[in-house]
Amino acid sequence: MLASLASLASLASFSMATGCAAPQSGVLRVAGRPDEALVTVDDQYVGKLGRLKRFGVKVPAGEHRLTIEANGHFPHDQLVTVPGRGETKVDIVLEPVPE
Length: 99
What we know:
7 strands; alpha+beta; 99 residues; Immunoglobulin-like; four-stranded antiparallel sheet
């Protein structure tokens, strides 16, 4: 048992020394109107705009497709880059569809 624990400790030290670490993540914070607009990141629903304005959403570091949609408004779609251990803020006001 002690030998296997020593092997496990060696493997953990090797992983840290060779740079094998968990991928970094950051926070995407989206503000704007209308509050009830639906927000998706990389085609995955993450919440309503009003909630993400306050809390944001944790995502892996890198580039992501942000989509915001609400009834009666033109949708918004853009690429955003979120740094590891950082935060990206986006402010979007959806344009109403004319009647």
